């Protein structure tokens, strides 16, 4: 409990610093942070990436729900929902070979199945991206002639930690992008910073420091974006005990990015919140005490979610937020979409890094 209170206090300070222009708040002592990041960078060099570019999964999913013969306005179910993915290599799906294995494609397939409507997917995530790239990514979605997305999923934060971006700056960039998307009319779901303490080549005693850094940023991200009407889902240890129990299956060949099974686990955890943001999930926002759901001050809800993977936080009223543990549904085992315009792996947008 004391640890959670401390994390809530730190996250609140970071979020406040982001809102009011502060830039010097640290997560833990500078020497400790430097040691953690050096270890993480060494781990990444040790395992190596050896990965090609992530496959592009843009296109129409759930085409069997489309009814092209229907007249305008007669079949609202035929109008595709517009889903966009923003973020870093995890959002882009680095580490898998097939478009249908990326988290964006899995979420698009799942959303189409739940909504019984086709889903048009655009993925503008870039490998190596930090939060300061989100403004560019949002511009790709909003500055053209296409209508804004109905819902956006953002997965970001790991590169901010490993490259020592000040946490207040990280949160400021994220909230700026979320605000821009919300003003355009999009619902937004943010997958918060994952737990870098799960990376196998990072050893104790530095693993617990990496976990602390990651969770503090995740909590601060939640405080910042929930105030804007977005929802968050805790990535935590990459969403569930499956990763801790089966790291060889859940991580890809570089031991850093998820495998196809890992991405499917992540997609299953985000999908309920994605659907709830569009009022499509059978469970309401009412609390279910039997699942330890609660209404808490935002900072406490953010801290609790950071420590429990797969937890949703959404605004309630005033300074309060709902802490939800939505039941996961299995996403479709096979891609239910029509093949994307180019089903072969095509290089996605890249920036330096992972």
Strand content: 5-15%
Number of strands: 9
* Approximate helicity band: 25-40%
How much is the radius of gyration in Å? 19 Å
| Major β-sheet profile | 9 strands, mixed
- Average pLDDT works out at 77
Note the total helix count: 12
> End-to-end distance, in Å?
34 Å
| H/E series | HHEEHHEHEHHEHEHHHEHEE
The side-by-side strand order for the widest beta sheet comes to 1-3-2-4-5-6-8-9-7
Principal-axis shape equals globular
Structure description:
This protein has 354 residues and is α/β, with parallel strands linked by helices. The protein is built from 12 helices and 9 strands. The protein has helices at 2-19, 30-47, 89-92, 103-115, 134-142, 158-162, 167-183, 206-226, 241-245, 247-250, 260-277, 298-306, and strands spanning 59-61, 81-87, 119-123, 151-155, 187-191, 231-233, 294-297, 312-315, 320-324. The protein has a 9-stranded mixed β-sheet, with helices on both faces. The longest helix is centred in the middle third of the chain and has 21 residues, at 206-226. The radius of gyration is 19 Å and the shape is globular. The two termini are 34 Å apart.
Keywords:
about 350 residues, alpha/beta, 9-stranded mixed beta sheet
State the gist of this model.
It contains twelve helices and nine strands. It has helices at 2-19, 30-47, 89-92, 103-115, 134-142, 158-162, 167-183, 206-226, 241-245, 247-250, 260-277, 298-306; strands at 59-61, 81-87, 119-123, 151-155, 187-191, 231-233, 294-297, 312-315, 320-324.
Please render the helix and strand layout as text.
Layout: H1 2-19, H2 30-47, E1 59-61, E2 81-87, H3 89-92, H4 103-115, E3 119-123, H5 134-142, E4 151-155, H6 158-162, H7 167-183, E5 187-191, H8 206-226, E6 231-233, H9 241-245, H10 247-250, H11 260-277, E7 294-297, H12 298-306, E8 312-315, E9 320-324
Helix pairs in contact: 1-7, 1-8, 1-12, 2-8, 4-11, 5-7, 7-8, 8-12
